[in-house]
Each structure stands twice: as structure tokens, then as C-alpha cells.
Amino acid sequence: MLKKLKTMISGSGADYVDIRYEVKKETSVGMSGPELKNAGSNSTDGFVVRALKDSGFSSVTVTKESDVPEAVRLAVQGAEAMAGGGKTVSLAPVEPAQDCVEPDLRGDPAKSPLGEKIALLKMYNGIMLSQPEIASTTMTYSEVDREKFFVSSEGASIRERVCTVSIGGEVVARRGELIQNIRASVGGANGMASLRDRDDVFLRRAELAKELLDASPVRGGTYDVVINPDLAGVFVHEAFGHFSEADIIEDNPPLREKMSLGATIGSEQVTIIADSTIPNQVGFYKYDDEGTPVRRTPLMVRGVLRGRLHSRRTAAEFGEPVSGHAVAEDHRFEPIVRMGTIYLEKGEMSFEELLSRLGDGLYLCDAKGGQTSGENFTFGAQYGYIVKNGQIREMIRDINIMGNLFKTLKNMEATDNTMQLGERGGCGKGQLNIKSGSGGPSVLIRSMVIGGA
Amino acid sequence: MDKLLEISESRGCRAEVFGIRTKSTEMEKTNGSVNAVSASIQSGVSLRVIKNGKTGMAYTKNLINREELVDNALASLEAGVEAGFDFPESGALEFTEEYDDTIEGMGFPELREQIEELEALYGGVTRGIVSLRAGCGTTEITIRNTSGANLMQKDSEVYRMGLVMYPGSSTDIGNVFRGRSKAVIHEPDVKRTLGFFRDSLPEIKIGEGRMKVLVLPDVLYAFTWRLGSAASAKAFHEKISPLMNKKGQQVISSLLSLISDPTTAHADRRLFDDEGVQTRRVPIFENGVFTSAYNNLDYAAKLSEKPLGTGFRGGMWGGDKISLSPSPSLSYANFQPGAKSFEEMLSMIDRGVIVHGLLGAHSGNILNGDLSVGLNPGLYVENGEIVGRVKDGMMAGNVYDMLSKAVAVESGLHYTGSVFQDPSILLNDISVVGA
Question: Minimal CA–CA distance to B28: which of B183, B146, B135?
């Protein structure tokens, strides 16, 4: 395939051209309550062509091999259209790699029969449905196995397989007209091992859903809070991580100024690292979707900005080193700057000491989606507790947090000494990215705006 | 596609083939420079089979080996997913009224011209960032089944979008214009947006309070998601809908009607859904009364109801249509226009917020109707005049309570980037929290 791709892009007339062919095998099993809704394995494939000509840059995606010549022609034409009065594009240099990468899997999902996957899903689903006051579930086994072939006119020739599995969804508790739900998921990028023997996770999630039936809606207002590792991960991803993606700020001069490397924008307690080289994590990969090897990238060290996530285009635009973060959802998309694994580094305090330092406030747990718009962010918490004098009290629900990145980074006062990385990724920046993992320790943040019901 | 049906039938299955082909071209200009140019040509086929009361599905982007696709569908069928439905006898239909073949010939130079026309209107913006986009594309959907359905619909679309971003932030407001052949710019809408932008440049701390909220069409999707989650036949079948036993009851303001109608001129028309069922007007809420759940073939059978033509492929996040089974969908539902002009509604606000965009609409307990979202932006209004935009603002509540407090609905409808048009809705006494 690599040889074929090389032939496809030869003679394009562009200053630079690359092509990515990808076969995406998806295995999915779905259940709604006790009913099996779907089960099966399917493969899709397609091509993405990008061309640079006269400092214009363009991309074209096509399904059929017979359309690739048209894709190459259109990509060059698009680059020419941009070149006439458009933004001047160049690509930061990257040593062209020739490599073949297989993931290190503990139990290759491709070799595991569909029957085992259905049985696992049914078992965990059954554990949740058997708990009192659990009305329903929506649960999915999901396996995405991508085999990617990348060739560039500079001589890169890479085949990499990335495989992600998860079992997850939502458990719904009901009492009369009151309905509460909790998300449950396990998984990762290291094969079936991450899915087996996880009964305790699903049992606890069902218990939490039931407990929420007795929780009170949080009252909107400004609170001091401790957020748990899952929420800390989502904060780092949503609030800071997107802001450190170069394409988000590149056309916004005031934000570029604020995010200058060397600027102090966080408290001394804040060190944030992007590291997709950590093995077995959901965000693990070796090369991004333009053939750049991913590297550990410290983004903020003790409150000072030290790095940024880049594609080759944005690295050249900013005059900064490439980081290997140009990632596409699949063969239907051109790569854009994305996070893989990102986390907040842990501190030295125990969790009890963190709560004691909080005094009165809220302890908020587990993310329920999040979104960012520049320096403003919001994310939901699945549940939480009122904290009085450092002691966890009544359970609360309907929690959404709104904030400003810069203000919040300054208000992050302390972190505890336990760090967890999430098992399931998901980010919807234009394309879905299931390989966006995040995590951190528990964090004490002063003065967060909480919107309740 | 016929060959796929033949092979499936030869294996003892009833079958349905869903095919889709799309072509699109897009260009974006930010701060006066073209910064993104892209194109896409995509296709795919999805096969559903039914045999012995069980159903299976398989899909592919490149239909090279038909036998293999049928094999995959049969392997999926082995898992034992119950099928209480059959594929509909929808006859033959070729619907091309929403298609303009000249769109196929549109290229990058034409998109550049489309953007330049927009540029003339947005040229007066001296603060903030202006991002202008234009795109065009075609979609062809084909559905055939062993019950004789032979359906084809071909659409074309041109769109233009103008966004202005507040200085030093990524928050923007803007307008979308769409059409089958042309994206005609409605200049008063642009002028109003740019006026809002200028008036809302100062950031204002408003603290906490209850006030009027004018919800613009751009953010009504957050309300529709929550109402739709509860009104889905899936939620009724699983007995988890907060609307259980509320059919015929007033649950939101009598000023509000949410109607699913892919046949109306206010939407990109569809005459059949993604399962080949004829589409029709389905009132979900009419004058505030919960009227009907919406379904697909599967849940219609489970609830012993008739399919309503509301079975579409796709989810909250879109997705690749061929890989997703049809599910009950409110993709084509919109709020019906009311009686007030936008200016009249604005003048009704003594103290309140115009919500132009949201952060975190997908968060929270959606099935229960909880809505706690960031205002992105929320334009702060005093005595009918915009005086700034809310700093770090959120609004919170439950959609049933919030929509019970509707006091006016706009008479005009506006595109927002979805397939239908919506009005603005003025709500009273809503909890808003700001810095």
C-alpha cells in the first residue's frame, strides 16, 4: 500500500504533497436496558490528500481509490486558490520517517471473538440493571482499530495501527418522576485486558445513580471547590488544553499575546504536561497524521507557559518546535491540532489535607461533558458533596461549572498526591477524537461559578 | 444496490440498502486572508437484514465485495438482536426538487466571490476578528428494500456564514444564510448582529439574579435536545421518560409548539426518512400540550404504533450515517413562529440577557430536562437596550419550567446552521449567574 500511495502522489506539481490511506475497523455492540440493539464488525476506508503550493495549503478527502487523482488535482487547485491573497503557509521541518508500528496489546481485540465482547457487555449491563431503582441503561462495547498508511513527497513512509476499546454508557435511576443518570466506562488502548474483571466499576456507578435520587440540586453561586481527578482531567483538557492548541489562537493576536511562552498565567501549583508517549493510555500513539513523531510536551511548568501543541503548519507559523499533535478522527478528515494524553501533575498533600484546606465548599466528582470557547469554559460534574469544615456532607446534583481560564489557573491553590488518568477519551473539536485522554490529582480551586438548577 | 438485495434474499433475508454520496467544497477567510480551503467526496452503503425475527447490519465505504458485506450483516444477525419490524412498502420516488445541478460546477473561485460579497457587509468592523465562510455541496440518498421501496433524493446546498469575534476572546456572534441554489444574505440580520456586537463590547459583572432571557434561534437546539430526549419512543419504551402519562397535558407555555415536519418549506425538505418511511407533520408539543412521541420502525413496533417518518441516522454529534442504525430523531423539528417582532421582544426586557451562544449544552441530566449552561455570549439588556455582555455568565434551570415561562415568540424564522429555521423565544424569571 505504501508503494501504491507513493505512486498516487507523484507528479502532482505541488511543492509538497502527502496522502493518508486508512482502514478503520469498528466493532460495536449496543444495549438499551436488557435489549441487545446491535452487534457487528465493519470496515471502512478512505484517502486524505494535502497539497502545499506557492505557500497555499489545501486538503481533500475521498472514499474511492478511483477518485484519488481528482483529489490530488483538487488539493493542488485549492492550494493555488489560497495562494492568491491568502495566508502564507509553510511546514516546519520534520525528518521523514520510514516505520511500521504495531500497538502493544494485552489481548488483541481483533483476535477476540464477537461472542466474548457481547458476553462482557451483557454481564456489566446486567450488574447495573439488577441494582434497586435502576430503570434503564444505554451501554456500548466499542472497538476502533485503525490501520493508517502515510506517505509524503518528502519521503515519509509510515504504517501505524492504533486500537482503542471501551465499554461504557449511562445508567439511569428513577423514583417516580425523578430521573438521574451516571456515566460508566472502562477501556483503553492496550487491548481486552482493560475490559476484563471490572465488575466493581459498574456496580459502583449503579449505586451512585441510585444515591443521586436522594441528592439535592446545587444552588447556583460562587464556591470554593475541590474537583476529583476525572474532573481535573476535563478541566485541563477543556479549559487549558484547547487553549494550548496553536490553531485555536493563531488568528487571534490578543490571545496569542496572552499565551506567549514564558508568560506566568497560573499559580505555582500548576504543571501541565501533554504526553502521548505514555504506554497503554487511551491517548497513546507514535506518529501523528502528518508523520511527525509525538513527543512529551510540558505545556505549563509551575504556572509558566513552556510549550504548545502543534501541527507542522502551526509550528512554522509560531516559529516553535513541532510536537506531533496533528490528528484526524479517521479517513474522512484532514488532521487538525488535537490533544492526546494531557494531565495535571500531582502535589504532595493528602486528600484529607486538601479538604481541610478547603474548609467550607463543594467536592465535585466526575465529568459530564465540557466545552470551551477561548478563555471561557464550562463542564458538568456528575455528582458532588457539600463540604463543611473539611468534612464531606450531603450529596448534590445538577452541577455545571463555568469559568475563565486565566482566573481559574491563578485560583488553583493546591493539589493532592494521587493521580489518575481516565480510561476513555472523547473530544468534539470539529471532529470526534476518541484518543484524547486526560487526568490529574484532586485540586482545590477558589471562587468557581457554579450554575445549579 | 439491487444486487445486494438479490444476494440477501438468496440467503433467506429481507433486506434494506441505504446509500449516500456527498460532495462538498469549503473556504474560510479570517482577518482578510483565506486561511482554509478543503473539499470532500464521500460515499457509503449500509445494509440491514431481517431473518427469523432477528436483525443485523453491515456497512462499507467502498462497495467492492457485495458477498462480503452480506456475510458481515449475517454475522451481525447471529448476535440475536430482536426485530419486531419489517421494511416498509414505500413504492418508488425520485425527489430532486431540492437539487440544483449548477452547484456541482461551483469551485474555489466561486466560493471566493461568495465570501467577497459578505466581506462588503462586515467591512465596517474595526474591533475584534471577522471570520467569513462559504461552502457548497450535494447529497444523494438512496434507499431500496425487499418490500419494494425504491427511493432517491438529491439535494444541493450553498451556505455563507459571517462571524465576528470579541477582542481578546474566542466568543463570537454571527449569521448563517443557506439555500438550495444561493445563500441569499438578509442584510437586516447582518446589521442587527453587528449592532449587537458593537453594543456588547463591554464585559459586565451582573452577579446572581432572576431575569428575562431572550433565547435566539442559535441556542434552541439545547432545549430541543432535552425535550426530544424525553419525547423519544425509546424513552417511552424503557419507561424512563419524564413525559410518561403526560400525553394531552400542558407541559410548557401555550405560546410554544415544537413540530417535526421535514416536508415544510422552513426545512431542507425530506419526503422519506432514513428507513424509507414517508415523512409528515408530527406535532411533538402543540400550544404547549405534549402531543406525540416520535419513533422509528423499531420503536414503533415495540410500542405497537405507526411509524411517523422520524427515523434518521445520526446522533447528537452527527457521525457517519452509514455506520449508525436509524433511531427516533428530531432532526427536522423546529419551534413554530409566534406573533412578536424581534424589536418588540427586545423592548419587553427591563433587565435580562440575550443568549446568542452556549457552552456545555451537552452536559447535565438531559433526559430530566436539566439545563445549566455557559452564556457564550449573553448580551446584557437594560430597558430594551444592550449595554454589554455578561462576564462569566451561566443560566440554569429545567427546560419544562423555563419553557413554561415563555412570554413571547418571534414571528420571523432564521437559519442557524441546522436543516430548519427557528424563531427567538423570550422567557421570564430565569436564574442567571455571572461573575
Answer: B135
Note the pLDDT tens digit of each residue in A88-125. 999 999 999 999 999 999 999 999 999 999 999 999 99
The answer on A160 and A39 residing in a single domain is yes
The range of the structural domain enclosing residue A357 comes to 217-451
Under CATH, which number does the domain B2-196 receive?
A: 3.30.2290.10
Residue of B47, B356, B370 best to disrupt the A interface, most CBs of A under 10 A: B370
Question: Where is the domain boundary, A214, A232, A247?
Answer: A214
In the prediction, which pLDDT does B230 show? 96
Cα nearest neighbour of A220 on chain B: B433
CATH of the domain at A153: 3.30.2290.10
- Cα A311 from Cα A326, distance rounded (Å): 5
Q: Does any CB of chain A come closer than 8 Å to the CB of residue B42?
A: yes
> Per residue of chain A (453 residues), what is the pLDDT tens digit?
999 999 999 989 999 999 999 999 999 999 999 999 999 999 999 999 999 999 999 999 999 999 999 999 999 999 999 987 778 999 999 999 999 999 999 999 999 999 999 999 999 999 999 999 999 999 999 999 999 999 999 999 999 999 999 999 999 999 988 899 999 999 999 999 999 999 999 999 999 999 999 999 998 889 999 999 999 998 899 889 988 999 988 988 888 999 999 999 999 999 999 999 998 888 999 999 999 999 999 999 999 999 999 999 999 999 999 999 999 989 999 999 999 999 999 999 999 999 999 999 999 999 987 777 777 788 889 999 999 999 999 999 989 888 888 899 999 999 999 999 988 887 877 778 888 889 999 999 999 988 765
State phi, psi for A143 to the nearest 5 degrees: -130, 120
Judge if A245 and A386 occupy the same domain: yes
Contact status of B201 with chain A (Cβ, < 8 Å): no
Contact B14, B146 (CB under 8 A): yes
* CB B294 within 8 Å of CB B231: yes
Answer yes or no: do A44 and A94 share one domain: yes
3 state SS for B17-50? EEEEEEEEEEEEEECCEEEEEEEEEEEEEEEEEE
Q: Which of B57, B62, B395 sits opposite A45 (nearest CB)?
A: B62
C-alpha cell at A116: 466474548
Residues of B in contact with A370 (CB under 8 A): 360, 363
Residues in A touching B34 (Cβ below 8 Å)? 56, 81-82, 85-87
Q: Tell which of A24, A31, A36, A42 to mutate to test the B interface (max B CBs under 10 Å).
A: A42
**Hey, are the CB atoms on A79 and B37 less than 8 Å from each other?**
yes
Q: How far is CA B104 from CA A102, B137, B369, in A?
A: 41, 7, 42
Judge: B41–A376 Cβ closer than 8 Å, yes or no. Answer: no
Whether residue A177 is found in the same domain as residue A269: no
CA–CA dist B330, B327 (Å, integer): 10
Which residues of chain B does A332 touch, with a Cβ-Cβ cutoff of 8 Å?
Answer: 40, 42, 320
Q: Check if B22 contacts A (Cβ < 8 Å).
A: no
Q: Does B271 touch chain A (CB under 8 A)?
A: no
Note the pLDDT tens digit of each residue in B39-80. 999 999 999 999 999 999 999 998 888 999 999 999 999 888
> Under an 8 A CB cutoff, do B323 and A451 touch?
no
The reply to whether residue B35 touches residue A174, judged by beta carbons under 8 angstroms, is: no
For chain B positions 54-83, those within 8 Å of chain A (CB to CB) are 56-62, 72-73, 75-76, 79-82
Domain match, A377 and A401 both: yes
Contacts of A75 in chain B (CB under 8 A): 39
Task: Report how far apart the first and last C-alpha atoms of chain A are (Å, whole number).
Answer: 55
Domain count, chain A: 2
pTM of the predicted model, to two decimals?
Answer: 0.90
Are A84 and A207 part of one and the same domain?
A: yes
Q: Which of B35, B57, B364 sits opposite A38 (nearest CB)?
A: B57
Complex ipTM: 0.87
Determine the pLDDT at residue A270. 95
Nearest CA in chain B to A243: B170
Count of CB atoms situated within 10 Å of the CB of B127: 12
Residues 6+ positions from B170 with CB-CB distance below 8 Å: A248, A252, A255, A373, A374, A375, A376
**Cβ–Cβ under 8 Å, residues B95 and B152:** yes
Where in chain B are the domains?
A: 2-196, 200-435
Q: Nearest residue of B to residue A27 by CA position?
A: B76
